[in-house]
Amino acid sequence: MDVITLAERYRDRLPLEPGDRVVSLGEGSTPLVYADALSSELGLDLWLKLESMNPTGSFKDRGMTVAVSRALAQGATAVICASTGNTAASAAAYAARAGMEAAILLPQGAVSLGKLAQARAAGARLLEVRGTFDQALRAASALAATGRHVLVNSLNPDRIEGQKTAAFEIAEGLGRVPDALALPYGGGGNTRAYARGFTEWDAGTPRFLAGAAARRGETLASAIRIVDPAHRAEAETAVRDSGGAVVALTDDEIVDAWRALAEQEGVFCEPASAAGLAAVRKLGASGTVVVVVTGHGLKDPDAVDRIAAPIVGVDADADAIAEGLA
Asked: Do the domains spanning 6-59+158-306 and 60-156 agree at the CATH topology level?
């Protein structure tokens, strides 16, 4: 069966050479789902771009297919990244697919079990760094500069190039550019990628609402627990130029949006992935709005124990069960 990969679908818009082998796991072409209940609640037409449906469960796969394909074409045998989890899982999977080694630097105590499990299963070398994500990223960049590894964090421009394709898919799916696009804001690379994608589509740019943790270094939303965003200048310029805003969110606001996605729309995501919806709820929007759901809920199963309703134990009889459901 012939499957058209993301890189092949948009090859004329990506930095791939004719002879490059495309390292793919079937990323892209993720669902764009109309959110009936939330649209009614908020008084707008709300769509959910489920990037959580990519092969490793997050939007990172879009950029990783391009970054690893280019690294392989250039003769690299190993990649390296710093990660709060999603990049780790993606880099490990795509490196394995390419027959390359992957080295992952993790900030100590800051990565969820689901993401660690993915990277470990794919055979990556995981090193827990005694420090923050920002310190781990600086170390990964320094190691890459020695020539032993290719850096596959979003500082690698090939990552941004791959991630911009989500903007193409949204414009194709709606038949136009939405009035607003809301997404989580951690390192800023994804905001930058969407801005580039919509600009290249040449049909206008949506108003960007970038949901950031008000307490970046302490938020329960681990995927955006980044104190010093690597793409801050570019991302915030794109937001400002669009007439949008960076929306500072409390953990309670993120959790409320997380619950709304699951309970009202059946969409299970990791807490950070609800930041886009939280931004829309806090700041407001109108018209056609797309909320990007960046990562699957199974990325951070421990979060469910912390913020979801508890399981109730009952005896195995109808009366006890009825009482438990009351």
From this structure: yes
Residue 31 and residue 34: Cα distance in Å, rounded? 10
**Chain-centre distance of CA 263, in angstroms?**
21
The Cα diameter of the chain in Å comes to: 68
Per-residue pLDDT of the chain (326 residues; tens, 9 = 90+): 566 789 889 999 999 999 899 999 999 999 999 999 999 999 999 999 999 999 999 999 999 999 999 999 999 999 999 998 899 999 999 999 999 999 999 988 767 777 788 999 999 999 999 998 889 999 999 999 999 899 999 999 999 999 999 999 999 999 999 999 999 999 999 999 999 999 999 989 999 999 999 999 999 998 899 899 999 999 999 999 999 999 999 999 999 999 999 999 999 999 999 999 999 999 999 999 999 999 999 988 888 888 888 888 999 999 989 998 98
CB neighbour list of residue 291: distance below 8 Å, 6 or more residues apart: 35, 46, 47, 48, 49, 181, 182, 183, 276, 277, 280
User: Can you give the pTM of this predicted structure?
Assistant: 0.94
Which amino acid does the sequence have at 241? D
State which fold the 60-156 domain adopts. Rossmann fold (3.40.50)
Residues 6+ apart with CB under 8 A from 81: 87, 88, 91, 102, 103, 104, 105, 140, 151, 152, 153
Surface-to-core class of residue 297, CB atoms within 10 Å of its CB (0-12 exposed, 13-18 middle, 19+ buried): buried
Domain ranges within the chain, ordered by starting residue: 6-59+158-306, 60-156
Angle at 36 between CA 30 and CA 39, to 5 degrees: 100
Q: Are 121 and 30 in contact (CB under 8 A)?
A: no
Q: How many angstroms from the chain centroid is the CA of residue 104?
A: 17
Distance CA 218, CA 239 (A): 24
What is the dotted CATH code of the domain comprising 6-59+158-306? Answer: 3.40.50.1100
3-state helix vs strand vs coil in the chain, percent to 5: 45, 15, 35
Name the one residue in this structure whose structure tokens are 């710093």.
Answer: 82
